Amino acid sequence: MLDVNLSGLIGQPEVSEFLRGIIARGRYANAYLLHGPAGVGKGTAALAFARGALCERVPGAAAPADDGASLFGDAPVAVATGDDACGECRACRMSQRLAHPDLKFVFPVSGEEKELDGTILETMEAMREDPLHVFRYEKAASIRISQTRELLGELAYRPHSAVRRIVVLRDCDRMREDQFSALLKSIEEPGTATVWVLTTARLSRVPVTIRSRCQKVRFAPLAESLVHDLLVEQAEVESPEAQLLAALSGGSIARALSMVGAEPSLREQRDSAIALLTPALEGRPAGLWDAIQKATGFNKVGREGLRQMLEFHQLWLRDLLRARYGAPLESLANRDRADVIGRLAQGLDALEIRRRLMVTEEALRSIDGNISTDLTLFSTLSRIAGKRIGEGQWPAHTTARWDL
User: Fold this and answer.
1) Mean pLDDT score of the chain, rounded to an integer?
2) For position 401, what pLDDT does the model report?
3) What would the DSSP string read from start to end of 321-371?
4) Taking burial as the number of CB atoms within 10 A of a residue's CB, which of 64, 98, 119, 285 is the most buried?
C-alpha cells in the first residue's frame, strides 16, 4: 500500500491519469472525494496522491535553497517536471513511512479511547510492514472526535517543510455529524496550504454539504482477472482457490485478501450455503428452516455471514446462466462442480435465473436494515423456489434520493 505510486494503481487507469495530471500541473482543488466500492484502491490512491503532491520533484513543490547537496545527502533537484512520487527524494522517503510532517493520515479505529494512541501506532506499523495490509472493521470503528480536534489544531499553522499540507481522511463516512460540521469550514476554505483527500465506500452517508465542496473521483470495481492475478502473484494463493476468491470478492482486492485462509475453507462454506437450496426447491419449509438454523448457528452468523451466503448463491446463479448458454468451463467460479451446474442449467432459462438473482439482490440490499439473519435467509430461499415471475421485484421507493 505505502510503496504503490499512482502509475502502479491496479485496474484504475482513468483515476491514475486524472490524479497524475493534477500533480503535473501543480494546481490543486480544495478537496477531493475518492468514492467507490470497498477495497478497490481508494486508500492506496489517496496516499499515493499525497506522496506525489509532496514530492520535491513535481511542479509547485518545495525546492532546496541552493543548488548544492543538502545536509541529508540528497542530490540537487533540477527542473520539477514529474507527475508522480519519484521515490528517491527526502520527502518521498518520509511520506512512504508515513513520517512526513505535512502528511496527515486519519482513519477509523476501534477500542477504548484510552488506548487510542497505541491502536493508531499499531495500525500504521502494520501498514509499513505488510504491503497487502487490509483495514478490517470487525468491531464498531469510527474517526474519533479527539482525532479531528487535534487535526484542526494543526491546520492553524503553516506546513513544516512543504509548500502544502495533505490531509488524507480514510473512510470519512465513519464520522459523527458534529465532526462533519467542524470540518466543513476547513474543507470549504482550506487556503492554499492544505489539500483534503477523503475516501468513502458509502457515498450516501457523507453529508451533501461535504460532497458538494469536494471534487469527486469515482473508482470502479476491479476485473476478476486482476484480483485473481494479484492473489496468485502476491498473496501466493493457489489458482483454483484464487478463482473462487476473485469471483466472490465483487471486484474488491481487500475483500478477497480478507477471505484468504478462512476457516472453514471457502469451498466448505460454499457447499454449506448451496445445500440449503435442496429443501427449498423440494418444497419442504420445515426442513429448510432446520437447515438454516444449523447453517447460521441459530441466528449467530451475523450480517457479514449472511451477505457471504447470499453471494455464494449469486455466483451459483451466474454460473448456471453461463453454463446454460455455452460459456467455457474456465469462466465458471464454481468450476469444481461444473457437472452439477451443467445438469441444473438445462432446466432453467435466462428469465427464471434473472428472477432468482433479483430475489437475492433484494435481500442483499436489506442487510444494512433491521433484519433477522435466519428469517431473511428463509424468506429469500423460499422465494427463489417460487414460480411467480413477478416475485422479487424491487418496490418503488425513494431511499436513494440523497445520492449524488
Assistant:
1) 84
2) 35
3) HHHHTT--GGG-TTGGGHHHHHHHHTT--HHHHHHHHHHHHHHHHTTTSS-
4) 98
